[in-house]
Specification:
Number of strands of chain B: 2
Number of helices of chain B: 16
Oligomer: heterodimer
Strand order of the largest sheet of chain A: 6-7-8-3-9-10
Strand order of the largest sheet of chain B: 1-2
CATH architecture of the largest domain in chain A: 3-Layer(aba) Sandwich
Order of helices and strands of chain A: EEEHEEHEHHHEHEHEEH
CATH superfamily of the largest domain in chain A: P-loop containing nucleotide triphosphate hydrolases
CATH topology of chain B: ABC transporter involved in vitamin B12 uptake, BtuC
CATH class of chain B: Mainly Alpha
Number of strands of chain A: 10
Helix content of chain B: over 70%
Number of helices of chain A: 8
Largest sheet of chain B: 2 strands, antiparallel
Strand content of chain A: 15-25%
Radius of gyration of chain A: 18 Å
Shape of chain B: globular
Largest sheet of chain A: 6 strands, mixed
Distance between the termini of chain B: 24 Å
Strand content of chain B: under 5%
CATH topology of the largest domain in chain A: Rossmann fold
Distance between the termini of chain A: 10 Å
Chain lengths: ~260, ~400
């Protein structure tokens, strides 16, 4: 069996005595989409924020492509090829799309100043790939539509060649057309061998895009199943009651 | 690009700053008429420019502090403390002015790092930290020399504050004006070439030339006014006062930091969305500490200019300055909510505040009434800011 791209092993995280993530282990393989499901407060976003370097881990191990890694900051996660599209999009509303795309990873000239022209040209290319009508890239992103803002957030993952992509509710604020765009993109990245963790509440997304699904409740993992093996009712049973479907095998990877 | 935008917006004209320019001109003309032709005389303009420099220098960096969603209420007290210290080290301890200034800078950095550390690392609101600092460092200013005024006598040092020998002379003023004009023109040409090289559309040449011509005209007009003021006992006119030169250099350097460096971009990102800044990997604490360190440097510069101008360090130096500095930043378009502001705006804001103050002084408005008005002007600026942003949907 090939080495998983990501192994999260027995991860724990508490906030002031409350166990937000309690002994969760999940794997992710190249070219695989794993949906992370659960109620609000189940711990899925917290788990992903630890992988993204936004929260330090209390105990547990992260293994990337067979190598144990110590991820303490977002920059260290980025260095591992981990990109995150947050539900909030993590955009600085007062800056333009180009600045947001490169935020924290600006291209500098040899004189240690911002290379604005380079960044604008590159940004134009990557935005164009996602949305051909997106041209007002020099206005503050607060003036953009929800779909355009999403394009900027997704572009970060594309431009910096994500190997592991975390998408937190990527379609929550989008119209049908833009949701379809995100779906196409997920399939395309999957074909390129990117591993994707997809946090979502939307059942059509789960069944349309994911290979496997992992359900969390109260910080614990209920179970991990091949998406094709379970029904929507069984998934809802896991999310709501924490009840494992009878006679269905758990799985660490989709075959 | 952005063909749907009106021309003035596409070329980067800020409607709000334009409005402030108009307001400044209106103030100037209004006071000129009311004062019977004194306000716009070269002598008065020379003094106003020179008096504004201290507030202006600190206001440039206050813009960045407010942009990053912080505030510093202690700038006046810290400036007083550092100013008295530098004067004390020269007068009472007999240090050279250079060593005294470096020691002052070191102390200012310590103060700023202390306040910045409480704010950035421990997460205490900067409002509280610096409100305490406002009181503490005013006290420290008293303690340095036990409340005694410390004269400074070094002739070169005194020139840093302007005054009798504090102009750079007519020749250098013209040279500087020509230099600034050339830089503006070259930058415009470079920007056009870079855009063409990257296949981006450029505006019509006449339009860009007109946009560069406006500031050039202002620069030459200012140089001409400064070169028209001659102190009766001297042969040559004053030219640009050194404090104004320092202020200009500070404003250019800070504009450069804002637009061309990572640090400047991070300050704006942190102000626009602190959570996003942390999530994309910006070292928020380090940038905040660097920002407070930058403030310390400029407060020291302001303290030096200020004691050089007064020829002494007193424990009341800079009292109430925080209000002028914050008002200058806000009048210049800095949002108290953070995330937006401009250095050039703070220059205009400082000029508006000082013109108002000097104008009223010239008209013999009593001190009580002046304070009432200046305080309300700050509030009016914030009200305008709130209404403007609501109208143009910037929040």
């Amino acid at each position: 069996m090939a080495t998983p791209l990501v192994q999260l092993r027995d991860i724990h995280k508490s906030f002031g005595g409350i166990k937000a993530v309690d002994g969760v282990s999940v794997n992710l393989h190249p070219g695989e989409v794993v949906a992370l499901l659960g109620h609000n407060g189940a711990g899925k976003s917290t788990l992903m924020k630890m992988l993204a370097g936004a929260y330090p881990i209390d105990t547990g191990d992260i293994v990337i492509a067979g190598q144990p890694v110590n991820i303490r900051t977002p920059s260290e996660a980025q260095a591992q090829g981990i990109e995150t599209i947050y539900q909030t999009l993590a955009l600085a509303d007062n800056l333009d799309s180009v600045a947001n795309l490169f935020l924290g990873r600006e291209k500098m000239t040899p004189w240690r100043t911002l290379d604005d022209h380079f960044m604008e040209v590159q940004a134009r290319k990557v935005f164009h790939r996602l949305n051909k009508n997106f041209t007002n890239i020099r206005v503050p992103v607060r003036r953009l539509s929800g779909g355009q803002r999403q394009v900027v957030a997704i572009s970060r993952a594309l431009y910096f060649n994500a190997r592991i992509l975390i998408m937190d509710e990527p379609c929550a604020a989008l119209g049908p057309e833009e949701t379809a765009m995100v779906g196409d993109l997920v399939r395309q990245l999957k074909a390129d061998g990117v591993g994707i963790f997809l946090i979502t509440h939307d059942m059509p997304d789960v069944f349309g895009l994911s290979d496997r699904l992992a359900v969390m409740k109260n910080g614990k993992l209920v179970g991990t199943y091949r998406t094709g093996d379970v029904t929507e009712d069984e998934v809802l049973g896991m999310i709501i009651a924490g009840k494992r479907p009878e006679g269905k095998a758990q799985t660490v990877r989709a075959e | 690009m952005n063909q749907n935008l009106p021309v003035w917006r596409r070329v980067g004209i800020d409607l709000r700053l334009l409005l402030m320019c108009v307001l400044l001109a209106a103030l100037g003309i209004g006071f000129h008429i009311l004062s019977g032709g004194v306000f716009l005389s070269p002598e008065n303009l020379y003094n106003v420019a020179q008096q504004t420099a201290v507030v202006g220098i600190v206001a440039t960096v206050m813009v960045l502090i407010i942009v990053a969603r912080h505030i510093d209420l202690s700038v006046g007290s810290v400036m007083g403390f550092v100013g008295v210290l530098i004067a004390y080290l020269q007068y009472t301890s007999g240090w050279s002015w250079q060593t005294a200034c470096l020691a002052g800078l070191a102390v200012a950095l310590l103060v700023s790092i202390y306040q910045g550390w409480l704010t950035a690392v421990l997460g205490v609101p900067s409002f509280v930290v610096t409100l305490g600092g406002l009181m503490s460092f005013r006290g420290a200013a008293f303690l340095v020399a036990d409340g005694k005024t410390q004269p400074v006598n070094d002739e070169f040092f005194q020139r840093l504050g302007g005054g009798y020998d504090g102009g750079i002379g007519t020749t250098w003023t013209w040279v500087l004006a020509v230099f600034v004009a050339l830089v503006l023109l070259v930058r415009m040409a470079q920007r056009r070439r870079a855009r063409q090289r990257h296949g981006m559309p450029v505006e019509a040449l006449w339009l860009e030339l007109a946009l560069v011509a406006a500031p050039i005209v202002v620069v030459f007009a200012f140089a001409w006014v400064m070169n028209s003021y001659r102190i009766p006992s001297k042969d040559e006119a004053q030219g640009l006062p050194i404090p104004v030169l320092i202020w200009g250099v500070v404003a250019v350097v800070l504009s450069f930091i804002v637009h061309r460096t990572r640090f400047g971009r991070y300050v704006f990102a942190m102000g626009g969305n602190p959570d996003a800044a942390a999530l994309v990997g910006i070292p928020v604490k380090r940038v905040t500490l660097m920002l407070f360190a930058l403030l310390a440097v400029l407060v020291t510069v302001a303290a030096i200019v200020s004691i050089a101008r007064l020829n002494a360090g007193t424990n009341s130096l800079g009292t109430g300055m925080e209000l002028y500095v914050i008002a200058a930043a806000v009048i210049g378009g800095t949002a108290l909510a953070g995330g937006s502001g401009s250095i050039f705006g703070s220059v205009l804001g400082a000029l508006i505040m000082q013109s108002l103050d000097s104008g009223m002084l010239l008209l013999d408005v009593p001190i009580g009434r002046r304070m009432v008005i200046i305080g309300q002007v700050l509030i009016a600026a914030v009200v305008f800011d709130v209404l403007y942003r609501r109208k143009f949907g910037e929040n």
